[in-house]
Design brief:
307 residues, 26% strand, 19 strands
């Protein structure tokens, strides 16, 4: 017998969808993935999520959402979906050899920040290395920071960091930015921002916290150490949509396309929420809001047309 709702992914979008779907008596099954809780599991302290005036640790916030979803009756499977078939109802998803069928599906697999893959980066992630200035910039008041990237998002994040930092160094491997001229000029003209052109970051330095980065000139090959207390990466995200290729419409960057103002995908009965759709805001609170919408959209769709 098919489940009413299958939720794939367990970040703020998926868990909020599970809470709403469970409270609507849809008995959701969530396949949370091996990386349960999404990107917030890699975040130390969250200070901008409403309701926590003193802040909360990312993993603690996700664990609370997970317990809330379970309390209302969500069944959680701690594995990764390996294949899906949305060509007909009931929709199918596989975890290895195990097959799940459902009348409706909510996809909330999120997006993964791109990392440099250099020594010290993973070890100091959350301890001075971050891929989200909006999330973590507040913790770096009056400090020297570096940011890697050359697109509009890198310029926006560098400018945002100037609200807190004493100095922001943009490290870029080319001799010009990919960003729009107006955004690039705004960053270049800012008194707190300095640009290291034709430069790569090769190592993050520090034992327990970031104390600096090792940089190398692309032109001369000369290496030096730059003393900074935080390294922010703004080199993009990759949506976790590989298994959905050919199943639902994706945009050129691989994000799931939804009808404007809804969470409805190109396949009726399949909904999507969170960073797997949203490549602009990418915040826990916006993902949670979209998860709420996806559960309500799924409930209304099942009431209207059903299996």
């Amino acid at each position: 017998m098919a489940e009413k709702v299958l939720i794939i992914g367990s970040g703020p979008a998926g868990l909020t969808a599970a809470i709403y779907a469970a409270r609507a008596d849809l008995s959701p099954v969530m396949i949370e993935g091996m990386q349960r809780g999404g990107q917030l599991m890699l975040t130390t302290e969250v200070e901008n999520y409403p309701g926590f005036p003193d802040g909360i640790m990312g993993p603690e916030l996700m664990e609370g959402m997970r317990k809330q979803a379970e309390r209302f009756g969500t069944r959680i499977v701690s594995s990764d979906v390996t294949k899906v078939d949305f060509s007909e109802q009931p929709f199918k998803a596989w975890v290895g050899a195990d097959e799940y069928e459902s009348d409706a599906v909510i996809v909330s697999t999120g997006a993964s920040a791109r990392w440099l893959g250099i020594p010290g980066e993973e070890r100091l992630r959350g301890y001075g290395v971050s891929a989200c200035a909006t999330c973590d910039g507040f913790f770096f008041r009056d400090r020297n920071l570096a940011i890697v990237g050359g697109g509009d998002s890198a310029m926006e994040e560098a400018l945002f960091l100037t609200k807190f930092a004493s100095k922001v160094t943009i490290v870029h491997r080319r001799d010009e930015f990919r960003a729009s001229k107006i955004m690039a000029q705004r960053a270049i003209d800012h008194p707190k921002i300095e640009v290291l052109w034709d430069t790569t970051v090769d190592e993050v330095l520090g034992d327990d916290l970031v104390t600096g980065i090792k940089v190398t000139s692309v032109k001369t090959g000369a290496s030096s150490e730059l003393p900074v207390e935080g390294l922010f990466l703004a080199i993009g995200h990759d949506p976790n949509t590989k298994i959905f290729q050919g199943q639902v419409d994706l945009d050129p960057a691989g994000y799931i396309v939804t009808d404007p103002g809804t969470t409805t995908t190109s396949v009726p009965g399949v909904f999507a929420a969170g960073d797997v759709v949203d490549h602009y805001y990418q915040q826990a609170v916006t993902a949670a809001g979209m998860g709420c919408r996806a559960a309500i959209d799924a409930e209304h769709w099942l009431d209207r047309v059903g299996p």
